[in-house]
Amino acid sequence: MSDNISISVNETIQHIQICRADKMNAFTDEMYQSVATALKKSHKADGIKVNLISGVPGCFTAGNDISDFYTYAEKGNFSPGIIDFLTTLGTLDMPLILAIDGPAIGIGTTMAFHADLVYATPEAIFATPFADLGLTPEAASSYLMPKTMGHARAYEMLALGEKYSAKDACRAGFVNKIIPSDELISHSLNIAKKLSKKPESSLLATKQLLKTEQEYILTVMEKEVEIFTKQLQSKEAKAAFSSFLNKTK
Amino acid sequence: MSDNISISVNETIQHIQICRADKMNAFTDEMYQSVATALKKSHKADGIKVNLISGVPGCFTAGNDISDFYTYAEKGNFSPGIIDFLTTLGTLDMPLILAIDGPAIGIGTTMAFHADLVYATPEAIFATPFADLGLTPEAASSYLMPKTMGHARAYEMLALGEKYSAKDACRAGFVNKIIPSDELISHSLNIAKKLSKKPESSLLATKQLLKTEQEYILTVMEKEVEIFTKQLQSKEAKAAFSSFLNKTK
Amino acid sequence: MSDNISISVNETIQHIQICRADKMNAFTDEMYQSVATALKKSHKADGIKVNLISGVPGCFTAGNDISDFYTYAEKGNFSPGIIDFLTTLGTLDMPLILAIDGPAIGIGTTMAFHADLVYATPEAIFATPFADLGLTPEAASSYLMPKTMGHARAYEMLALGEKYSAKDACRAGFVNKIIPSDELISHSLNIAKKLSKKPESSLLATKQLLKTEQEYILTVMEKEVEIFTKQLQSKEAKAAFSSFLNKTK
């Protein structure tokens, strides 16, 4: 269990908080594993009905920890946490709400396409600058982003690396509502509570009907991981990581 | 032929009006059957080129009649009208325009995803509060809603039960234009007329090219009906129907 | 090589300009062929990294040359240029940017759904009035338009023939940004330059992941061409072409 993931359960609502503020909430493998484990626990047996993921005030996540990327590049493959996290995202049957304030980079943006409801503050910034790091899309974003918002917008984010504001994201359909930052968590918890009061069999069956593509999503993720792993080892990726790590030393 | 469905044909335009104002235009099985029969008649042989469905001023439809839901729950299956209506919606080859003023609840919203053009007034309200009744999506909405507007918005309507205004619906892509209520019918009839003047072979071939998924849509509807029927008989659904019927006694 | 297509390569950016201002940049078969040939050349071997297509100030394209349509109708099939252009659009692995000012009619609109990034001026007008000419959708627009913006909007353009402004197109997701007309080309070239500096293997792999449906797109195009060719020979289409050609004599 990672120190950088804080988990609290209040009645039937599990709140998973990314808490690594000194590193802009960048995800280590251990952090992915902790989130995946918590999400997988959220089944009827455990009395959890709704999951909420948030960051800290002013920061959702800077994305994958770059020094971990560097290690993956050396080893030639990912650690198991990230794979477990992706698979869990793609197959979760319980409701998942995201509350996003500040930067939501890389996986911070791509996980939004798996969430059921996404609330963001006016300060939220979405970006997937994979190409700038010599990398490629992950988390089935190469399928889910064009499906949700059309090819031109998906390419604008995934290849050109343009930032989207909360308003842009709302317009593109992957954020539900913009909420002032001092109300973000209370609003999201209220919605979680509202959801948790609804007949559980309806909620589960509704999500199951909406998410009939789980198997395909997993296939896309696998193909993306294969290409991503190859890209990780490219000259361009290694140079981008070194440059980043030197800058932040 | 239901008294609550009024059908008029003017030149080549068939106007189907839902007229059960005292019950907020709630659909009975007989009403579904009448609409289905009228739509099915709209083929070249009958000289009908375009179909328009509207409600009464201030109300499109409150959705399925709740006392009918109660009966279905007792019997364990739907009456045939609703199934015929859904199948007809999913396979109609003639153009279908909706003119929506006031509430468009349940099937009132989900039928919009089958229509070719949808006009709504600033007073239109779209909602699919299936989960609040212990129910689940129908009319292939579990497939068509996320396809049209992304998963997060579809979940917001289908599971959380949030209301969408005409503006929200426009932004989400399932309403074409917002029209003042006193011009809604004349505008919609004008558009119907405009369509009816276009080469019929082009119109039919265009719709056929756009709707290549008919078979899949019918499969989704069947699966949804199966789950919906099970949910109808749940404790939560029966309690919701009883509570509603007591309130409106 | 058509006189009406001007091609310039600056460093790694190929700028393809439609230059037939006296005929509103209407496409002849030779012009399609020239654009297709240029796009196909844009592979690593040739040192081209990004393609940009623009029209002349105030006009992107009026669409297919109507007198060519008339000839196709007489012959009963297309000339090879258009088919080569469509196939190239559907299978291009290099980045493609469109810069659109003024009318973008027919293929001018439908090619936007194949581009990776689309910039348009406030004066841009998008329209696909196929039905008004007795014709039907092409360039896989019957699949890509509803996929990108939902059925109701696709039908509004493809069957009803409604014009979309740059703002409408932005909202519908097939234009990325609105750019003042005097900055359109410089902005688009800047973006092309920005893209061209990114790791090429990332760009290529990203587009490949985003465009997994190439085979299906080609199948749709083939089916559309078959129906379009039949419609070309219809009484209504021939009458529309004659009327147009008489007006512009």
What does this structure look like?
Three copies of one chain form a homotrimer. With 249 residues, chain A is an alpha/beta fold. Chain A has eleven helices and nine strands. In chain A, a hairpin with a 2-residue loop joins strand 1 and strand 2. In chain A, helix 1 runs parallel beside helix 3 (80-91), helix 2 (66-75) runs antiparallel to helix 11 (235-248) and helix 3 runs antiparallel to helix 10 (214-232). The longest helix of chain A has 19 residues, at 214-232. The radius of gyration of chain A is 17 Å and the shape is globular. Chain A starts with a strand and ends with a helix. The mean pLDDT of chain A is 95. At the A-B interface, helix 5, helix 8 and helix 9 of A face helix 5, helix 6 and helix 10 of B.
Q: Summarize this, please?
A:
3 copies of one chain form a homotrimer. With 249 residues, chain A is an alpha/beta fold. In chain A, 48% of the residues lie in helices and 14% in strands.
Q: In terms of topology, how is this protein built?
A:
3 copies of one chain form a homotrimer.
Chain A: E1 5-10, E2 13-18, H1 29-41, E3 50-54, H2 66-75, H3 80-91, E4 96-100, E5 103-105, H4 107-110, E6 117-120, E7 125-127, H5 141-149, H6 151-158, E8 164-165, H7 166-172, E9 177-178, H8 184-196, H9 200-210, H10 214-232, H11 235-248
Parallel strand pairs in A: 2-3, 3-4, 4-6, 5-7, 6-9
Antiparallel strand pairs in A: 1-2, 7-8
Helix pairs in contact in A: 1-3, 2-11, 3-10, 5-6
